């Protein structure tokens, strides 16, 4: 009995330590975004000054919009192309299919630093150069394999007879896909979309290589700002982003039970 | 409603001939069973008729119209799958409504047709349920309702009762037959269960290695099998082998076996005689009630008591014959006893050696 209780207690301790490890830095950062001192000095004095000055920081705001825009467009493109590719890999047998599937994984494993350098050189070679469009292309290329892998995993649980049953009832290819297959893989598509969004929105390395001083994304802008001299505005913008993204995640988890069958 | 004609249908997958020159005429409104072991081509044939796969050569006609190059969604067929294949994201009613809905029928028509189909399969009150909330038998009925609500020209069933337990299967056999009669739809039914084929269908086609072995009403195939395979695959049969005398065979030890039905063969060729276990009478004395009867002597090696009947295994000249006797009284024969087996030539079928 005694050992069970000790183990139980250790288990709880482990969870709290883990949660603290994950969330304490974020909480401190969020608190400091409301602190008067720009140098993390205590005692804590409440202020909204940094949020107000953030509002004046055009560079940071425009970088935030750039990041959101690129992340959303990347997500849409990757979800559409990735789901279509997963369906094709699921439905059809063709020459080189195994090879194609194997080719999906290296981009996930190759360090972004290398991918970024390669893209920079390639984009200059073909005349695309740097800028937001180049960043978007890079993000799509990075995020697409994630979507295909996640949606394909979901498709593994799909019974192909369902498509046959729908066809036998007179449904054409579009009706089969939209009314039978897509509803089943939707949780995978949404999870894949979240992955794509996260890969793009978090992306620093590839964006850093492909951005130009005027056209940049939030992570790159934050990095540049810190190098110039840290201001709590960074804390403020980070806090806003964390609150928004956690709310999005919780909403998604509420409406689509990940991993569940139904 | 329409009949289905399959003519000279062949389909190969690589070197494997899944269907080899198969021709069958499925009559309008009939209930047809395709019977065969796994790999015999019965499911391939069904999928060809459905239109999931196209033949290498040959013709398929539904209601006189050639359809062998028409894709499944345009063939106006109804199909019930082995695992039901109900759409998990839809309610029972939406599952049944699917075929009408993709066709663009009006909502009011769909609702009334769906209700009619659900009533027909006795699930009128369960339209709002989800497939995972139903029992196996209920799912089976939903799959059937979904397949017939579109008024297809032909109903195709791919081992639809395979996933059900024995008692439920018998119920569903009766139910399926009732519904088929009620709507009078041409039905083609794939099964590996010979009992199912015998009890449900008007005609049976037996397939083996992609070829049609024999085709006809259940009684005809049972009483006059044309091959040892047909004799032993549909029901149980004792096979005796020897040289044919034209009207029967002579066994190696010289005993003559007279056959009342079957092939006409030139005397002297190798042939066999098939006789059903329940047609043989078993006795301890050699009374001569029927002078024309075939008679063999042997020794009971094993007896299996099954309540209403008993199965005796009788050893004779190195061969074991199976005899099934209805237990109409309490007298039983013991293992080891010497017995006389008697059966009439009419119950004996002459089959060419294969």
Kindly summarize this structure in a few lines.
Chain A: It comes from Mesorhizobium mediterraneum. The complex is a heterodimer of chains A (262) and B (354). Chain A has 262 residues and is mainly alpha-helical.
Structure, explained:
The complex is a heterodimer of chains A (262) and B (354). By secondary structure, chain A is mainly alpha-helical. Helix content of chain A is 77%, strand content 0%. Chain A contains twelve helices and no strands. In chain A, helix 8 (160-168) runs antiparallel to helix 9 (173-202). Chain A starts with a helix and ends in a 7-residue tail after the last helix. Chain B is an alpha+beta fold. Chain B has two domains: 4-223, 3-Layer(aba) Sandwich (Rossmann fold), CATH 3.40.50.300; 236-352, OB fold (Dihydrolipoamide Acetyltransferase, E2P) (Beta Barrel), CATH 2.40.50.100. Helix content of chain B is 24%, strand content 35%. Chain B has eight helices and 21 strands. In chain B, the strands form four sheets. In chain B, strands 6-7-8-3-9-10 form a six-stranded mixed beta sheet, with helices on both faces. In chain B, strands 13-12-11-15-21-14 form a six-stranded mixed beta sheet. In chain B, helix 2 runs parallel beside helix 4 and helix 3 (107-120) packs across helix 4. Chain B starts with a strand and ends with a strand. The model of chain B has no long low-confidence stretch (mean pLDDT 88). The interface between A and B is medium-sized, with 18 and 27 residues. Chain B: It catalyses: ATP + H2O + polyamine-[polyamine-binding protein]Side 1 = ADP + phosphate + polyamineSide 2 + [polyamine-binding protein]Side 1.
List keywords for this structure.
heterodimer; A: 262 residues; mainly alpha; MetI-like fold; 12 helices; 77% helix; disordered C terminus; B: 354 residues; alpha+beta; Rossmann fold; OB fold (Dihydrolipoamide Acetyltransferase, E2P); 2 domains; 6-stranded mixed beta sheet; 8 helices; 24% helix; ATP binding (chain B); Spermidine/putrescine import ATP-binding protein PotA (chain B)
